[in-house]
Amino acid sequence: MSKRVPIGQAREWLRHELGWGQRPLAALGVDEVWLRFVRFGSQRFDVASVPDADGLLCQYGTYAFDGPPVFLLDFVRQFEVCDASGEHDHYLQLHCELRYEPVRQLRALGHFESWFFHGADEELDSWVEELRLHGFWRIVRTFPPMGIRVYQEQV
Fold it and tell me: pLDDT, tens digit, for every residue of 45-100?
């Protein structure tokens, strides 16, 4: 088995996968961002030996967290971080967030979330295929994102 990447390097790994600094991320389009995020999601990291220690999340909805409402399509990688005794300490989340004008068609999608966890019964390819068939893609593709933000947070 190959050596796994430390989770401390995950943010740079995601930025590299997205081609950070090579061209504006919004120029990639939602399909290309998703493809690159899934490639990042397939990379295994050195995580705690607990269930659900390494997960992927696809979520969307209209929110006003830090100003006027926006429609957010958020791809997240979540790692569970344990303390020295192996107990849960916190989660580290890496977000690749696409922001859209909250037009009627996007607001009408409501809210959605779907999780995948490495080591669970489902395979990553099956989760990706299930999401590919979800109807929101057809609608989101018709609108250009206002911007794409990549950030990390501890929760």
Answer: 999 888 899 999 999 999 998 899 999 999 999 999 999 888 899 999 999 999 99
Q: Are strands 70-82 and 54-63 parallel, antiparallel or unpaired?
A: antiparallel
Question: Which two three-digit tokens encode residue 136?
Answer: 């929101």
Write down the H helix ranges in 28-150: 29-42, 104-107, 124-132, 136-140
What is this structure's pTM? Answer: 0.92
Which amino acid does the sequence have at 107?
A: R
| Model confidence at 19: pLDDT above 90 | no
The answer to whether 143 and 100 have CB atoms below 8 angstroms apart is yes
DSSP conformational letter for 67: S
Residue 38: Cβ within 10 Å count: 20
Q: Which residues are CB-neighbours of 113 under 8 A, at least 6 positions away?
A: 57, 58, 59
The single-letter code of the amino acid at 46 is: D
Euclidean distance between CA atoms 92 and 139, whole angstroms: 30
